[in-house]
Amino acid sequence: MDIPRTWEEAAVYPTGDHVCIIFDRLDLSHDYLNNVRLYYSVFLMHRRTDLWGPDALEFDPDRWLDERVKKYLIPNPFIFLPFNAGPRICLGQQFAYNEMSFMVIRLLQNFFKITLSPEPAMRPPAWWAEKDGRQAIEQFRPRNHLTLYAKGGMWVKMETVDDVEIIN
Fold first, then answer.
1. Which pLDDT value is given to residue 164?
2. Residue from 10, 74, 3 nearest 42 by CA
3. How far apart are CA 115 and CA 117, in angstroms?
């Protein structure tokens, strides 16, 4: 079951993009540059196969549980950037993790099954199926502005726990 804002979703669909860091002083091959703006895309960094392996475009929550964590993330923790890293890390990171954990627990206490229910407004155009990579398999249209969102909304169907027969 895909629950919003899991670690894997934060990697595949980070909340922000096009981060700008202004360095007072930056050393690149011994050339000192002042007041440099460095732009990078978290969205694209989390899809780099040289950082995440050949399955970087796949939604696979198990990557946080198997040997891939030791192979990719532990040696280089700065590749997972939904909250940035280092001295400029988001102050709300732990709050966001706690809030997400609470929300997932409450969802699982109340709903037995959550499935995507694509409405016409959220479906990607038919020509996406002819593309390579993630675009060919997407069932919704990810868009970004200040944060990442789903064009047309993210429609789901949920079955409540009360609707399920409990087997003793």
1. 62
2. 10
3. 6
Q: How far is CA 66 from CA 55, 62, 73, 75, 127, in A?
A: 14, 6, 11, 15, 35
pLDDT tens-place string over residues 105-117: 999 889 988 898 8
CA–CA dist 8, 17 (Å, integer): 16
CA–CA gap between residue 61 and residue 59 (Å, rounded): 7
Print burial letters for 51-84: b (CB count within 10 Å at least 16), e (below 16): ebeeebbeebeebeeeebeeebbeeeeebbbbbe
Reported confidence tier of residue 102, pLDDT bands at 50, 70, 90: very high
Q: Is 142 helix (H, G, I), strand (E, B) or coil?
A: strand
Work out the mean pLDDT of the chain and round it to a whole number: 78
Euclidean distance between CA atoms 63 and 66, whole angstroms: 6
Q: What is the DSSP string of 41-104?
A: -HHHHTT-HHHH-TTTTS--GGGGTSHHIIIIITT-GGG--TT--GGG--TTHHHHHHHHHHHH
